[in-house]
Amino acid sequence: MKAVVYSRTGGPEVLQLVDREVPSVEAGEVRVRIAVSGVNPTDWKSRAGSGDGRELDVEQVPNQDGAGIVDEIGLGVTRFAVGDRVWVRDTAFQRPTGTAAEYTVLPDHLVNPLPDGVSFDVGASLGIPALTAHRALTARDAGPARLSPGSLAGTTVLVTGGAGAVGHAAIQLAAWAGATVITTVSSPAKAALAAAAGAHHVIDYRSEDVVARVNDIAPGGVETVVDVNPLENIDDDVAVVARGGTIAIYVSGEPDGIPVPARASMTKNIRFQFVLTYTTSEAEKSNAIAAVSAAAAAGALEVGEGHGLPLVRFALTDTAAAHRAVEDGAVGKVRIDVAAL
Fold this sequence. Notes:
The protein is of the alpha/beta class and 341 residues long. The protein has ten helices and 16 strands.
């Protein structure tokens, strides 16, 4: 089989296309033939490491997310049959078995059924982006543990960076769950994407006063903020969040420290929730998987420019270019077409 690997950390040039034996399947495992591999910022950051060119103990296949079909199952696996359409998650987290390969073998709990009618492109978006968004939207103490239609009815959510992959998923999931969704973007083109994703109110933070606009829309404050850039947004977040609300943060930026307005946060009894989907609890992960699968089945997590998330496609042979595109801030979702299934 063809696979992309790296044996030391560094720039995209460390990624190499190689021939490997198709991996065998042990008890409790599932072999998936990958149709589409998704590339997220976490993938290039893992590949880059700390910048010291560290040699790896085990050759690594990159990319956490993907979708495809079950090719073989191991002893004891009862959830799947050969030929089932599936999406996979966390495939390269503390494992060498990412999705930038024609086949990957995973424990069956990392493999999930892809609902009927849901494309492989959507399936390759249900890992890092959608699971992160779900945890951010359910972090509020008074909110639901699992999103469903109507579960956020009567609430208002602010999503910063609504044209990004996690922001896009947060808009879609919040709207599906019945929230009023406000989002911020940096250009008219990104505003159009956020609106296509389902945001009810779109604010261009480069030309508009975010706090004033949000206060006009939600005078009592927003119950949840989903924030991609707290270094820039923290003061505005605190200003617009409701008393007892939650600010969910999934990227901190550099430098890593975030100066928090302590007294204003105390006065409102604000909760700050940092989100890393890899290390959420089993209950949180289970709820997220169930909810995003249901949302996908309902057509609420579609991708493509018409749905607010353009797809930027690469071949497996061009995985280095795909990583470079994400690292350079490509607008939309970067996809690697691994096999036509």
